[in-house]
Design a protein that fits this description.
Helix 1 runs parallel beside helix 6, helix 8 runs parallel beside helix 10 and helix 9 packs antiparallel against helix 10. The strands form three sheets. A six-stranded mixed β-sheet has the order 2-16-15-10-13-12. A six-stranded mixed β-sheet has the order 6-5-4-7-8-9, sandwiched between helices. The protein has a four-stranded antiparallel β-sheet with strand order 1-3-14-11, covered by helices on one side. It has 408 residues and is of the alpha/beta class. The chain has ten helices and 16 strands. A hairpin with a 4-residue loop joins strand 15 and strand 16.
């Protein structure tokens, strides 16, 4: 995997506190797609509550039948269904050990039941995965169209459980069907579990979302990537470090541990961290932290750890005053801040505060355009940065107009 670490600025003023933005840029290797790839475990947890009756359940079953045709003999597959209780429809085992006629029959004969207990289905799916040791990693895919109205309903519970499972090498991804599903819980599962959360508004989109997720699952090249960030003695006071994406992280002694999830063949992902830097008393190059990226490389079939320093140049204040931020790092941070503004605007819309939501969105778009006007186009990187910011501003302005003209 290609790993880069970039700061928004490479110099800071001596003895002055500062805020730095650290961007990690990860690019996964291409999938060699050879038959001897490590086997992966795919555990599907499917909502079969009453609202799934008819076309939604039939579409999901059709997608699962296509999925099992694409799995290799060394891959494992299992299926758990849930309504107000959960049951194992297909025990998790390798495809070589499944009897295909029986497997297809079990999927086709699923039927709908009662209310929606997401926690029952998720926990049973995790238990099934613990019985297999897939060398290529394990993924739980939860599909639901409803709100949890039975069992555990606190999003923090789902975040905590999926975060612990991710630490145990199980990725959780979710697909929400229609407009009535429990977005809070499904997002909490995906964020804690290091996977993707997809939305499907129609049956056709549902089939496409399941197919896309399966494509991703079978095209992984990096599994369970983890960042470890350890401040050095130069950070004289307790540093304030914030991961701007909504990713699970915790402290292990002085080290911050961040779960980055899985990457697919050739995928590029960027992660942004804010570091509050205390004043540094001496001039010159100074190491403020060490970072280590740990991951499982599926092609090489080995655990890999890449360590690199995070350095800044400490210079006199008048020299630091002329510094210019890296345009790509700056753009990435601005986009993340815009995502936060959009999330707050959604909450305001749901509470009937249309003017507040529209005003927030318009203000965010104006700020993006103001920042874009300060970027000099000197090379491809700065031109890319400018295009990214302007595109986000256009989208947010459209959202602001939609908020004023349409219903929730």
């Amino acid at each position: 995997m290609h790993v880069k670490a970039l700061l928004d600025v490479d110099m800071v003023a001596m003895e002055a506190t500062d805020n730095l933005t650290l961007m990690l840029d990860l690019t996964a290797p291409a999938n060699p797609k050879h038959a001897s790839r490590p086997g992966q475990a795919v555990q599907v947890v499917l909502d079969r509550s009453g609202s799934m009756q008819g076309e939604p359940l039939e579409a999901a079953k059709g997608s699962l039948l296509k999925l099992i045709d694409r799995l290799a003999p060394q891959d494992s597959f299992g299926l758990v269904a849930f309504d107000d209780t959960a049951l194992v429809v297909v025990p998790t085992r390798t495809m070589a050990d499944h009897q295909m006629p029986e497997l297809r029959k079990a999927i086709r004969e699923m039927h709908t039941g009662g209310s929606t207990d997401i926690s029952a289905g998720y926990l049973l799916g995790l238990r099934e995965l613990t019985r297999v040791g897939a060398t290529g990693g394990s993924t739980l895919l939860l599909i639901s169209d409803g709100h949890a109205n039975a069992g555990e309903q606190d999003p923090k519970f789902f975040t905590d459980v999926s975060t612990k499972s991710a630490a145990d090498k199980v990725t959780t991804s979710t697909i929400g069907l229609g407009t009535g599903y429990d977005e809070t819980i499904l997002e909490a599962l995906a964020q804690g579990g290091g996977g993707a959360h997809r939305f499907a508004g129609t049956i056709d989109e549902a089939v496409g979302a399941i197919a896309a997720e399966v494509d991703d699952l079978l095209d992984k090249t990096i599994v369970n990537a983890v960042l470890r960030l350890t401040p050095t003695a130069a950070m004289t006071s307790a540093p304030a470090i914030e991961v701007l994406q909504r990713l699970p992280y915790w402290k292990d002694g002085e080290t911050y541990v961040v779960q980055l999830g899985d990457l697919y063949s050739g995928e590029n992902r960027r992660f942004v961290i804010n570091i509050e830097l205390p004043g540094i008393a001496s001039l010159g190059l100074c190491k403020i932290a060490d970072i280590t990226i740990e991951y499982l490389d599926l092609a090489a079939r080995q655990e890999v750890a890449v360590t690199m320093p995070v350095n800044v140049n400490v210079v006199p204040g008048d020299v630091a005053a002329g510094r210019i931020s890296d345009p790509i790092v700056r753009a990435e941070r601005l986009i993340l801040e815009a995502q936060t503004a959009k999330s707050l605007a959604v909450d305001e819309l749901r509470n009937g505060k249309i003017k507040e939501a529209s005003g927030r969105l318009k203000g965010t778009a104006a700020n993006l355009r103001r920042e874009a006007s300060l970027i000099p186009v000197t090379d491809e990187r700065s031109a890319e940065s400018l295009a990214i910011i302007r595109s986000e501003a256009d989208e947010i302005e459209t959202l602001a107009q939609t908020a004023e003209q349409e219903d929730i």
